[in-house]
Amino acid sequence: MYQFSKKLKKIIFIIMFTGLFFLFIEKISFSMNNFFNEKKTFSIHKKYDKKENQPWMSLYIGFFYFTTISLGSLFFLCIQNISKSGWSIVIHPVMEGVSSFLPYGGLMILIILFLNAMGFIHLFHWMDLSLENNNPTSFKYDKIIANKKLFLNIPFFLIRSIIYIAGWSFFYFRIKKISHMLNVTRSLIFYKQLNRLSVIFIIFFSITSILMGWDWIMSLNPHWFSTLFSWYVLSTYIVTGIGSITIISIYLKKKGYFPFFNENHLHDLSKYLFSTSLLWTYFWFSQFLLYWYGNIPEEIFYFIKREEIYHSVHLWMIIPNFLVPFFGLMSSKSKTNPKIVFIVTCILLIGHYIDIYSLIAPDVKLSYPKFGLYEIGSLLLVGSIFSYILFINLNKKEFSFIGNPFFQESKNYKYPYM
User: Fold this and answer.
1) CA dihedral 16, 22, 25, 29 (to 10 degrees)
2) Spatial separation of the C-alpha atoms in residues 314 and 305, rounded to whole Å
3) 166 contacts 129 by C-beta, under 8 angstroms
4) Is residue 383 in a domain?
5) Number of other residues whose CB lies within 10 A of the CB of residue 306
6) What is the DSSP string of 364-397?
7) Helix, strand, coil shares of the chain as percentages rounded to 5?
8) Complete DSSP assignment for 168-181
9) Which domain holds residue 208?
């Protein structure tokens, strides 16, 4: 049974308050710079930057990153349920633990979206209340946004977002409850219910995950679109979800709370990390190649903008998100080495945060966004909240799903080619 130690709680709270401190310091610095600059000059760009409020952008990126980690973990858990995989049963408690942030992170994202819709902050340009998209003769008329108003309108956008978060949260709590009942009663009735519910979630997820990518990231820049974009984002949080499951499993094993987790389970998790990293690279390359080959100005400006701001970070991401896992996890020996897997997974998580940041930040600000204390503070704050919720859900929990009919198979699992 895992015990959430006071020492770990203290570390998490220190990180949390450090994140708040960074946000506070940067906010004071930003306000002072704005005060002195406005005395010297005034421009529409300064007004726009002041309205959009950079801390909210950083918090939005942080909450999106960690919420999608939980979503990826829940998706992976349901895949295991549907496929009736025997090897992964001992890891199910960790999958549920990593998924536990989903309702809370989703709620925070929803709050940010509502604040944007009411005009308190400015992340989504098409939500700007000053736009006059019903008047083609107006200076503030945007033809592209006007043509998309059937889909990109505030009420429909918020309704869709509520459906995403409410649906994912419902499935998380329901799966968690049925899983607990299965473990207590050992009844096949609950096992079948768990399987059916996982199938329904996958269907719901297959629709909402695509729409979510369009709504929460791609609509930040309504003048650009990619039919492959949501699949690209999906591959990102599948990697980060599996990566987080792997790190927590290694940590619990090292602390002696995870006796049934062995090198065979680690080997299979590493294989999933390896293969999903290849999937991400496939989508990355396919999207980039199609636009590069077409060379259409309206399309390639998306990549040119990021090249100018971040010095070709789109290409540099290949190193942590593809080359490191490809060479680091290629051999079976490295897949079963906890130290190698842990280091590679940490690099992957950092690489995919950079990926999410580069997808969102350039399309929020008019001026060139730079990574600073706001981003560090948000990452520390949201990451510590994520960790606290995760370990609270794992606290006093038995890591043996003895009620699952495949538990013994998972407990005695051995990879045949190792």
Assistant:
1) -150
2) 11
3) no
4) yes
5) 19
6) T-SSPP---HHHHHHHHHHHHHHHHHHHHHHTT-
7) 75, 0, 25
8) HHHHHHHHHHHHHH
9) 6-407
Structure tokens at 237: 């949080």
* 0.70 surpassed by pTM: yes
Say if residues 317 and 358 touch (Cβ distance below 8 Å): yes
Contacts of 298 (CB under 8 A, 6+ apart): 223, 224
The number of distinct structural domains making up the chain is 1
80, 8, 13, 103: which is closest to 395 by C-alpha?
8
- Sequence-distant (6+) residues with CB within 8 A of 315 are none
- Residue 417 inside a domain? The answer is no
Kindly state the helix (H) or strand (E) to which residue 409 belongs, with its residue range: helix 407-411
Euclidean distance between the first and the last CA atom of the chain, given in angstroms as a whole number: 30
416 located within any domain: no
Cα–Cα distance, 238 to 265 (Å, whole number): 18
- Mean pLDDT, the chain cut into blocks of 10 residues (418 residues total): 88 94 76 53 43 77 96 96 92 94 96 92 84 71 83 94 97 95 91 95 96 94 88 95 96 91 94 96 89 78 82 86 95 94 96 93 70 89 96 85 88 82
Both tokens of residue 53? Answer: 């409020």
